[in-house]
């Protein structure tokens, strides 16, 4: 692609299986390029066939290694698998080191696998802003499963659960006791729990803690309700990987249709919320960076206050564009 | 106009296991605000090109200390062309004789940054090359 190709054309090429075109369109989504928006909108309308699996967990829990193993196992069922692997951007330079591919290197030349690394660029919640656009593009490009691997998260970054059809939470042995396991936050969002590194002797304890935590909950007694499984896996021995694939496939098909529809609505609502938030944020930050230096000076000197300044700033941000609804 | 940070894929191709240098470069590029995808040791040209296309990088940087540059780079350039990605900027790093460096430049490798190149010069070179290429 030596000349600049229009985004609509990139989408058409991606839909015909050209992965270079899909990759370029994802870059434009990451840039937030206005030119790409109609093509991404079209991708959204055409997508919806792929199963989106979110993989999350604390840093070092073994997410990337597990994604590598899982991708292999899904490939063995004949599925084409795309991976969007997210790593953090530096809060100082804005740069990043995206190293998830290192742990998936044996998949490097399989034409049924596509791996894309993405930096968070200041997005909180464990995701990158363009991750869901990328999932749509890869869906349209013919991938059956799209795995989104979040950054290594803390206890509170749970956006992935609002964006994926199946959420897998990875815990490593030795990181906490049974009180950690009943806390609110990340452990609550799992459709499937994985305890990685279960070749290690302390893995049983973690498996037990998680199972006990789940047993403490008031379970949905309906016979067809989903019961969250706890799967021990080992990337060294390969243990548990097939079981995990089985759980993911069961979760895809065994969840009752009304629950699945409710989830689809939840995912759509989240997408709308995030898209509006991102567009607003983009406009806001452009103004904030360029026009607010004088006021920062006054604010630091405490001659003006943050509340009235912020309301004024937001009003000017919205009126500066095409939105004509005063905020306050 | 919305823009992305410069995106660079760094790879070690061939059998040498020395990756301290490439990690120093990765860190310098990160600190200069670039997105750096590191693919690890012992990659083949096929693996590197596949990854670079999927990642849609501006710059593909290949570090070599094993003397196989005259086999590896022609192969990489050929594969990029085959996949329609010949607008990708290919940069070589590591240790090699001057005559090989000249031959690689002739072939289309955009810059050769040898072991004594200061990190800031690497940053500046990549910025200049990406700017000269323009939008894509």
Could you say what the CATH topology of chain B is called? Rossmann fold
Beta-strand percent range of chain B: 15-25%
Number of structurally distinct domains of chain B: 1
Would you state the CATH class of the largest domain in chain A? Answer: Alpha Beta
How many helices of chain A? The count is 12
The strands making up the biggest β-sheet of chain A line up spatially as 4-2-5-1-6-7-8
Main sheet makeup of chain B = 5 strands, parallel
Average of the residue pLDDT scores of chain A: 88
The mean pLDDT of chain B is 92
Query: What count of helical segments of chain B does DSSP give?
Result: 5
Intertermini distance of chain A:
48 Å
- The secondary-structure class of chain B comes to alpha/beta
Portion of residues within helices of chain B: 40-55%
How much of the sequence lies in strands of chain A comes to: 5-15%
- How many strand segments of chain B? 5
Gyration radius of chain B, rounded:
14 Å
Termini gap of chain B: 13 Å
By helix and strand content of chain A, what is the structural category? alpha/beta
Structure description:
- The complex is a heterodimer of chains A (328) and B (136).
- Chain A folds into 3 domains: 46 residues, no CATH class; 208 residues, P-loop containing nucleotide triphosphate hydrolases (Rossmann fold, 3-Layer(aba) Sandwich); 51 residues, no CATH class.
- Chain A has 328 residues and is α/β, with parallel strands linked by helices.
- The C terminus of chain A is likely disordered.
- In chain A, strands 4-2-5-1-6-7-8 form a 7-stranded parallel β-sheet, with helices on both faces.
- By secondary structure, chain B is of the alpha/beta class.
- Chain B contains 5 helices and 5 strands, in the order E-H-E-H-E-H-E-H-E-H.
- In chain B, strands 2-1-3-4-5 form a 5-stranded parallel β-sheet, with helices on both faces.
- In chain B, helix 1 crosses helix 5.
- In chain B, 49% of the residues are buried.
- At the A-B interface, helix 2, strand 3 and strand 4 of A face helix 1, strand 2 and helix 2 of B.
């Amino acid at each position: 692609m030596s000349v600049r190709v229009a985004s609509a054309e990139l989408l058409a090429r991606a839909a015909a299986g050209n992965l270079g075109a899909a990759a370029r369109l994802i870059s434009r989504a990451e840039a937030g390029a206005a030119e790409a928006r109609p093509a991404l909108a079209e991708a959204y309308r055409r997508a919806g066939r792929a199963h989106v699996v979110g993989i999350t967990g604390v840093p070092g829990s073994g997410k990337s290694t597990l994604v590598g193993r899982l991708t292999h196992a899904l490939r063995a069922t004949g599925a084409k698998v795309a991976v969007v692997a997210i790593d953090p951007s530096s809060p100082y330079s804005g740069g990043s080191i995206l190293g998830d591919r290192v742990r998936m290197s044996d998949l490097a030349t399989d034409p049924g696998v596509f791996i894309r690394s993405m930096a968070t660029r200041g997005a909180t919640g464990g995701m990158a802003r363009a991750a869901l656009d990328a999932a749509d593009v890869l869906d349209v490009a013919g991938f059956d499963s799209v795995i989104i691997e979040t950054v290594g998260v803390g206890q509170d970054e749970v956006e992935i659960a609002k964006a994926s059809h199946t959420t897998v939470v990875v815990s490593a042995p030795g990181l906490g006791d049974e009180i950690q396991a009943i806390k609110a936050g990340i452990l609550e969002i799992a459709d499937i729990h994985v305890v990685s590194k279960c070749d290690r002797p302390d893995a049983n304890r973690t498996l037990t803690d998680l199972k006990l935590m789940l047993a403490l909950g008031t379970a949905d007694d309906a016979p067809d309700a989903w019961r969250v499984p706890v799967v021990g896996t080992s990337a060294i021995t390969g243990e548990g990987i097939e079981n995990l694939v089985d759980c993911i496939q069961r979760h895809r098909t065994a969840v009752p249709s009304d629950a699945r529809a409710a989830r689809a609505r939840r995912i759509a609502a989240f997408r709308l919320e995030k898209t509006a938030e991102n567009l607003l944020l983009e406009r806001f930050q452009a103004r904030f960076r360029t026009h607010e230096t004088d006021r920062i000076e006054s604010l630091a000197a405490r001659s003006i206050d943050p509340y009235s300044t912020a309301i004024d700033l937001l009003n000017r941000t919205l009126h500066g564009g095409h939105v004509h609804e005063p905020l306050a | 106009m919305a823009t992305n940070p410069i995106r660079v894929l760094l790879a070690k191709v061939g059998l040498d296991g020395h990756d301290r240098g490439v990690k120093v470069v990765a860190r310098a590029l990160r600190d200069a605000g670039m997105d750096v995808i590191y693919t690890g040791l012992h990659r083949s040209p096929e693996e590197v090109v596949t990854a670079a296309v999927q990642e849609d990088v501006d710059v593909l940087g290949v570090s070599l200390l094993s003397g196989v540059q005259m086999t590896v780079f022609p192969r990489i350039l050929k594969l990029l062309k085959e996949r329609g990605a010949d607008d990708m900027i290919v940069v070589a790093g590591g240790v090699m004789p001057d005559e090989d460096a000249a031959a690689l430049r002739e072939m289309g490798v955009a810059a050769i940054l040898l072991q004594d190149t200061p990190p800031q010069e690497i940053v500046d070179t990549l910025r200049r090359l990406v700017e000269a290429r323009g939008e894509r």
